[in-house]
Amino acid sequence: MIEYLSSREFLILFAKMIAIFGGVMGALAYTTLLERRVMAFVQMRPGPNRVGPFGLLQPLADGLKFLFKEQVVPTNANVLLYYAAPVISLIPALLSFSVIPFGPDLKIADISVSLLLIFAITSLGVYGIVLGGWASNSKYPLMGAMRSSAQMLSYELSLTLSVVGVLMISNTLSLSSLVQSQQGTWFGFIPRWNIFLQPIGFLVYVLSGIAETNRLPFDLAESEQELVAGWHTEYSGMKFAMFFLAEYANMVTVSALATIMFLGGWNGPVGGPWWLQMALPTFWFLLKIGGFLFFYILVRATIPRIRYDQLMYIGWKILLPIALANILVTSFLVAVL
Amino acid sequence: MIEILFLLFAAIALGAAINVLAQRHVLYSSLSLIVLLTAISGLFILMQAEFLAVINVIVYAGAIMVLFVFVIMLLNLPADEDGEDRLRWLKLIGIPMGLFLLFMVVRTVWDVDAAPSAPELAGTPQAVGASLFTDYVLPFELTSLLILIALMGAVVFAKKDM
Fold first, then answer.
1. Which chain B positions have a beta carbon within 8 Å of A156's beta carbon?
2. FRET label pair with B53: which of A154, B44, B122, B126, CA 20 to 30 Å apart?
3. Mind listing the pLDDT tens digit for each residue in A141-173?
C-alpha cells in the first residue's frame, strides 16, 4: 500500500540520502587512492604520495584535473550517444545504493525485492559501456564494447544463480531481512553467516562479481595491451571520470552485496554506550566492504589477464554448471532438513 | 500522486513506443524499446506488482535488449534509406487491419465495467511463485519446454557441422 511520509520523516529520509550519497562519493574517490597505493605497495614503489600527507589529497587533485581537461569529441562520433554513455553508466551504478542497508536504520528504501532490484539496475549499466564504445566511432572502443557486452551477459547468469542457494536458505529477497537472518552464532563462536553454508556459492559469486565489474583478471573489455583502453579509449576529462566512478561504484555494490548475502552484513559484536551501539553495525559493514575492496585490488595486482576464449570457457563451462549444481544440492538439503 | 506518476510513465512509454517506429536507425529504435520497457516496469510498480516490474527489467531490458544492441553493433547497420517501396500492397491491406485491431481493443476495454481488482499482495514473489507452481503449472512447464526446443534449434542452426 502507498504510505505518505510526514514532513519530519521526509527530513530524516532526506538527511539519510545526503549522508549515503556523499559518503559513497567520498568513499569512491578514496578507493581510487587506495587502489593506487596498494598497487604501488605490491609492486614495491611509493605510489602517489606528494599531494597532502601520505597523498591523501590526491583524489581532489585528480578531480580538479578532470574538470579542467579539454573536451574532445572524435570526428564523426555520434555526439548524442557519446555524451549520454558516461551518464548511462554512472546513474545505475549510483542508483543501486538506494536500497543497500548500511546499518539497521541507515538505509534509504527498504523494499521486499531489493536484491532483484539491484540486479535489474546493474544489468542496465552495460549500455553505458556498449554505447560509449559504439558512439566513439573508433575500432578499439567498438571491440572493447563488443567484448564487454558478451562478457557481462555470460557472467550475469552465474552471478544471479550463485545467490539462489542463499535465497533458498533465508527465504527472502529483501536485503535487510537477509542480514537479520544471519544474526547470532553457532556453538557460541562461529557467526551464523551464509558463507559457512554456501562456500561454493560464495566462490562463484566472487569470481563472477570480478568479471561483472570488468576488473583484472577479467578486464578483457579494456585490456590495455590489445585495445589501448577498450571502450573508453576516446574519452577524457570528466566523461572519463564518470566511467571511472561507475566502475568503482559497481565494485562497491558487488562487495556490499557479498557482505550482505554471505558475510552477515552489519552483524558483529556491539556494545558500549548508545552512540557506539548506533555506529558499530555500520562500522562492521564498512569494514567488511573495505576488506573486499582490498582483496579486489590485490587480485588485480597479482593475477595476469586471461585470454578471451578462457574467459568464455570459465563462465559457461565451469562457473555456470557449478552454480546450477549448487542450487540442486542446496534445494535438496533445504527440503530434507 | 499515483495519477501523476501513472500519467508520467504512460507518456514516457507512449513516446518511446512511437519513437521505436519513427526512428530510421535500428539502434535508436532498440534504445527507445529499452526506455519503453523500463517505463512499463514503472507502471507495474504502481500496480504493486514489484516482482513483475523487476523481472521485466532484468530479462528484457537487461539481457534480451543487450543482445539486440550487440547484434546491431556487430553488423553495423546503416540508417534506413528511401529505396523502392516493396511493401506498397501490404500497406493498403495493413491500414484497415490495424484500424480493425484498434477497434477490437477499444471495444473490449469499453465493455469491461470495472477493472477487477487483483487480490492483495498478488505481485509479491511468493504469490507469483505459488500461482506458477499450482494453478498454472502445465502452461508454465509447456512454455519452458518450448523455450528449450527453441534453444536447441538455435544451437543446431549455429553449428552447421555437427
1. 62-63
2. A154
3. 888 888 888 888 888 888 888 888 888 888 888
